[in-house]
Every structure is written in C-alpha cells, then in structure tokens.
Amino acid sequence: MASLYSPTRPSAAYSSYRSPLRPGMYTNYRDRSMVDDTSTVHGEYPPTRPFINTDYTRSPAKPVSALPENDRQGVMGALKSLQDKIRKLELERCMAEGNLKNLASETSRYRDMLQREQMTQDAATATAVSRQSQELESQLTAAESRCNLLEKQLEYMRKMVQNAEKDKEMAVHRHTMLDRRKEEDLQAGLQSQLDKIAELEREHLRLTATQSLAENKIRGLEERLQEEQHQRKLIQERAAELQTAAETNRILLEAVSPQHSRAEDHKPTAKRKKKKTTAKKSTASSQKPPVDPTNHYRLNLNEIPFVAGKAVTPSHALGANVQQVLSLMKKHNPSLCAAARKNGLVRRSTASASSAYTGSSSEEGDLAELMVQLQDEFAQMSFEHQELLKQINEARDYRLREDLERELDHLVARMEAKGDQIARLKKHQENLQELRLKKKKKKPRPQSAPPSQYTTNGSSSGEVQVTTTIKTKGHGAGKIHAVPTAGTRAALNLLKDMRKLQTSLRKDDLSWE
Length: 513
Prior knowledge:
Elements: H1 12-15, H2 72-117, H3 123-256, H4 262-265, H5 274-286, H6 318-330, H7 353-362, H8 364-394, H9 398-441, E1 453-456, E2 464-467, H10 486-504
Antiparallel strand pairs: 1-2
C-alpha cells in the first residue's frame, strides 16, 4: 500500500491534477484580469464530500464521525483511509510547494515584467497579486492545519490499534488458557471414563462368570427338578397303583367279609373329603341289614393275602391297615359277623331240596363264564380308579378336583357293588362244589319225599326249618314234622344266596363301563 501511494510514483489521477495556482491556468498574464476579484482560492469544507478529489458523496442526514469504529476491520479501514488522506495531502503539499516555487520563479520573472510595466498598470494589479499570494498563504496554512489534525488522528488511531492488539493478545491468551483448561478437563474426564470403563469391564467379567455359574446351577437345579418331577410322577403313579390295589383289596375283603362290616371298618382315604365319606357312611348304615349275633364269620387264613410285618397298630401305611383288619378278623367282633337275612316270610318253594343239587350242576358253566365277565369288569374299574387317581393328583383346579373325587366315589361304590357280586358268586360256586362233594359221598335214597313246606322259626336266630309232610293210609294217618338237618340247611342257604345274586344282577352289570 505504501508503494502504491508513495510520493515518487504519483498516480494518473494526480498526474493530471492541476492546481488553480499553476501558471498554466494563467498562461497569459494578460488574462489575469479575467479572474473575478471577489473569487478566492479557499472555500468552505463540503460536508457531503469528505474526501478531496473524489466522487464519493455522503448523505447529509448521516453525520460525519471522525472517530473510528470499535471493530478491528473498521479501525484498519479508518487507518488505511487516513494513510491515503495523508499521502494525498503530502502530494498536494508537494505539488503546492512545487507550484509555489514555480510561482515564485514566475513571480520573479513577472516581477521584472511588472517592474517594467509597473509604470503602466494600475494599483489594482498589485492588489490582485497580493490577494493571490494571501490566498496561497491561507491555503498553505489550512493544509498545515489539516496535516496536523490528521497526524493527531493517526496518533490516536495508532494508540487504538495498540490497545486493540493488546486486547486481542489478552483474548488469545485467555482463549488459549481456556482451551488448555478444557483440554486438561477433557483429559481428566477421559481418564476417569477410561477408569470407569475398565472397572465396568472387570465388573462385566465378574458378572459373566457369576452368570455362567448361576446358569450352571440353574441347569443343574432344572435337571434335578426334572428328575424329582419324574420321580414324583413315578411315585404318584406307584401311589395310585398302591391305592387302587388297596381299594381293590379292601373291596374284596369287604366282599369276603360280612356285608354289614363295611360301614364300620371302611375308613375314608386321604384323597376323599370328610363330608363325602360321612354321607357315604350314613347311606351304608341306613342300608345295613340287622345283625344276626348267632352266625359269625370264621377266618380262613388260606384265603387272606400275604402281608409282611406283624404290627396291628393304626398307621397310614397300607400294610399296617390290612394287618389291623386281619387282627380284627381273628377276634370275636360283632362288626365282622355275617350279614343277617331279611326278616319276614320266606317264599315257599314247590321244588324239593334235591332239585337244587341237579340245578347247580347244570349252571356251573354259566357261573364260570359270569365270574370271568365280572372279574374283567372289576379289573377295568380298577384301571379307571388308577387313572382317576392320577388325574386328581395332576389337577390344579378346585372344581375339577371335586368333580374327579365325586366320580372316584361313584366308581368306588360301583367297585364295591361289583366286589359284592363277585363274592356272592364265589360263595355260590364254593357252595355248589361242597354240595357236589357231599352228594358224591352220600348214598342215593330209595324214594323221594314229596314237596316239603318251608317255614321260618319264630326264634330270633333267623334259621329256616323245613317241615316235610308225609301222608299215610290208615286210621292213624296224620302230619309228621321232620326236623331239617345240616345238609338241608346248607342247601336252603345256597338257594337263597343264588336267588339274591340273580335279583341283584342287571343287564348293565355284564357290559364294560
């Protein structure tokens, strides 16, 4: 910038500049009179044109401020403009000095001419020259004052630039300090985060190891749980089988024992409710026939299944309960006596006692087939009993469990009825075999007696007496009462049991449930 505006290299704009005081403007001294005497070289400073010899105009509404702006760019621009102005003023001063020198030389030259023409010219020319010289002097003084003012402004601008540079250095220093502090804080934060990450990685490794150990333990516990569930299922199945077997044995024992002993010896199992067992006991006791104290059950140990152990104390075990039943059966207990027959008149039969023996031999095949069917039905009921027990053990719903228990009670009642039928049929078969053996041992009679009449004894023993009437010819003919023997009594009991079995059997009893 200094080279562009140096005084040694004036620009084209300043090369064509002509001062109003140069001699070119007054090429002819004679034309000096053309200049108005009232015109002066100096004029008022134009506020709309702050720069000299430029076309820049400023709005009158905007005041011209000599103070620079606070912005650094404004300050730099103001400094540059001041430097340009100073250079222009120096150029103008140099040009004015040159013009002044030229004017001095010209004045000296013209002075001679004036001296020669002094005589001929008026005093007006002398005043004009003096006026021009005064104008030049006034221009010089104005230029000097402006230069002084610009120098003062330049010095003020330099101070402002120095202050701005100091502020800038302080701001840069402050910024570097802040950056350094931020960097230190960032490094400290990064270090703390790295420490936290390392701690979290160690914690993650520890938790991973703990999780793997926990998963192994959980897997082991799940395997143990599965094994325990499997064992529990096996135990439940075994318990259901044992309970079914116990129920079957109980029903068979009750069927072998007298009928009225069921209501007293039957104890509710753990799987049934007390309310249902109480209702069942009351029903059984209401249907129990009167007991015949003279007819007791005689225990045959060959018909009793083998049970390990000899304890007869009450227990929850199946074997102990069966042993208690056996101990009760060995003693004289009215609850284990044979069921009494219904009181009332016995139907009179027109068939003879010998007809029962012949009928039993012909029905042996049918009874064996019926026994097989009843045993198959009882086995099917036992299987259903076991399945119901499994369903009860696996059931979670209370209502479903109640329904299954109700169905189980109904099935147990059917099993008891079926066991009753099997026991009666077995007893009937045994009686038929005994009668057949007795018939083989006895000799055949020469003549058969006419139909006998059955009458009941009025005693409380409930025994049936057979009265045989024999008609004879003669004056002393009369009724002869024959006392029934043990064989006829057994035949009558067998016939009564057979009729009870026939009346108790139904069509549905011979089909699968």
